[in-house]
Structure formats: C-alpha cells, structure tokens
C-alpha cells in the first residue's frame, strides 16, 4: 500500500431510515471537515425562517460525533423537539491509485469497500411515535434553572454558596451546580495523594 495514494472516497447512497418523511425534508449531511457553525446557521434558518417541521442530520465514520453535537445544539436552541435516532453501517468505496506502476503490472487502481458506522437523527416539532426504537421525548425547557417563588427567591432548596459564576452564560457553572466547592475539593483530594 506504500505505492498507492487515495484518489477519492464514494459513499453508497441509501434511503433515510425513517418512514413517512415528507419529500422536501431537509437532510444535513455532516462530513468530517464540515464546520459546525455553517451547518447550524443553515439548519436553524430552515427550522426558524422557513418554518420546517422536521430536519434530519446524518453522518458516518469520524463525522458521527460532529453529527450528534449539531443535534444537541439544535435541541438546546429550539427546545421542544422530538428525536428519533437510527444507527447502522454504511459502505464507503475508496479508490486508490498506484503511484509507481511497474511495466506490465496489472492493477493501476485499487477499490476498497469499507463498512463504517453511520447515524441518522430525525428532529421534529411534531410528536413522533414514542414506541419506535431510538425515540427521545423533548427535554424540559429549564431543567437546571432554580425554581423561583413569588418573591423571586430560590425555592429549589439549594444555595448558591460555593458555586462559581460562568460569565459566558450568565449563570452558575454547570460543574459547580453538581459539585459544590467542599464536595469538589474532597473528590480531588481522594484522587490526588
């Protein structure tokens, strides 16, 4: 293989694994080199400005984690989205070209079939069948925010003592929501002699 160079990679086209999708559903094909900012700008415009009800994110190989990241960002920004996740394998065809062909040798190109993991995630504003495999209901809108009483006091029973403030999001740091200072220090001291 040291004399071969990868020329191109082709992805076998396969239908989306979701039945009854509208024909004009937007499919965001996430690639390894895709910029999350660009993907999210386009996807958010489709859902907010064009009023789409459903969108599909798909990615394979090393793009699977980026696909999941995009979905989580969209769920957090829009809220109230139903989700169905399907995992499968996809076949990639890699074409390799011989860089140092010997006279009279046979193969100039080599085609390799690779099976790579693939993920397809459907996000929908409309309710989906909760009995299908991979279904996730919408997350509560404000799960980590403290409950405020009539006078605006914190009714959740937890104090803000020992928490750090995250100025980027103007709320307590999420790490310190779960680990107040004393508990966090004791956890660190147990790990570090």
UniProtKB/TrEMBL annotation:
Its main location: nucleus. One of its GO terms (biological process) is tRNA 5'-leader removal. Residues 27-90 form the DNA/RNA-binding protein Alba-like domain. It is found in: Nucleus. Keywords: Nucleus. GO terms for cellular component: nucleus; ribonuclease MRP complex. GO terms for molecular function: RNA binding. It comes from the Eukaryota. Coiled coil: none annotated. Residues 130-166 are annotated as: Disordered. PANTHER family: RIBONUCLEASE P PROTEIN SUBUNIT P25, RIBONUCLEASE P SUBUNIT P25. Belongs to the histone-like Alba family. This is Ribonuclease P and MRP subunit p25. The lineage of its organism: Eukaryota, Metazoa, Chordata, Craniata, Vertebrata.
